[in-house]
Amino acid sequence: MTLDEGRDVSSRVLIVATGVVDVLPDIPGVGEAWGTGVVHCPYCHGAEHRGERTAVFGADDAAYHMARLLRGWTDDITVVTNGQEGPGEEMEAQLEREGTPILRSPIARLRLAGAEVRGIEFDDGSVLDCDVLYMKPPQRFASPIAERLGARVTSEERIDADADGRTGVQGLFVAGDILNRAQQVATAIGGGAWAGIAANHDLLLGPPE
Predict the structure, then answer these.
(1) What is the pLDDT of residues 45-95, one digit of tens each?
(2) What pTM does this model have?
(3) In the chain, how many domains are there?
């Protein structure tokens, strides 16, 4: 392997744990509030936003599922599709039965107080007052190194590997968010530990048959 600086390095095993990067929509205020007032997961952020006025960004099945799931934390939920049609008639009917409105106007910007969300302004001049915006932005690998070394990418945009992080490329292991969609510190640490054990095993005894 040749580094950018021109130096060649070699190794019998390599554990790649470079993570992923969130690709945020080009909406003023989203980047400034990301991780504070704009969040991605009720299991990570639901407790601190319990009972708050909540918006869910998106027009696909994932946004619909998120809006229904958030009923465990708040009763004040609105789906904002940013100009997209929405999740479909059946899903929309379910949201309506549960009292979740859908706003389809394109979003102009977020209203912020520091990194906290105070509302969403739409292109038509209307405003939705809210305290938190949930979204699941697309992601990309922070580094292409695993792919360049021959690892396969799954349909879910993760590196294909077994429970021990073995990729199928001899000596190449992965751990963390490039493998696990749960994206939690605990699962990343556990995956890194298993990958380290597996790599050590293969160094000493060779890969399993």
Answers:
(1) 999 999 999 999 999 888 999 999 999 999 999 999 999 987 778 888 899
(2) 0.87
(3) 2
**Do the Cβ atoms of 56 and 77 come closer than 8 Å?**
yes
The residue out of 134, 151, 179 marking a domain boundary is 134
SS3 195: helix
- Helix ranges (DSSP H) in the chain: 30-33, 42-45, 61-69, 89-97, 145-148, 185-205
Element (H, E) at 93: helix 89-97
In angstroms, what is the C-alpha Rg of the chain?
21
Domain presence at residue 5: no
Classify each residue of 131-146 as buried b or exposed e, where b means 16 or more C-beta atoms within 10 Å of its C-beta.
bbbbbbeebebeeebb
User: Which of left, alpha, beta for 92 (phi over 0: left; psi -120 to 50: alpha)?
Assistant: alpha
Residue 9 domain-assigned?
Answer: no
Q: Are residues 108 and 158 in the same domain?
A: no
Range of the domain at 115: 24-134
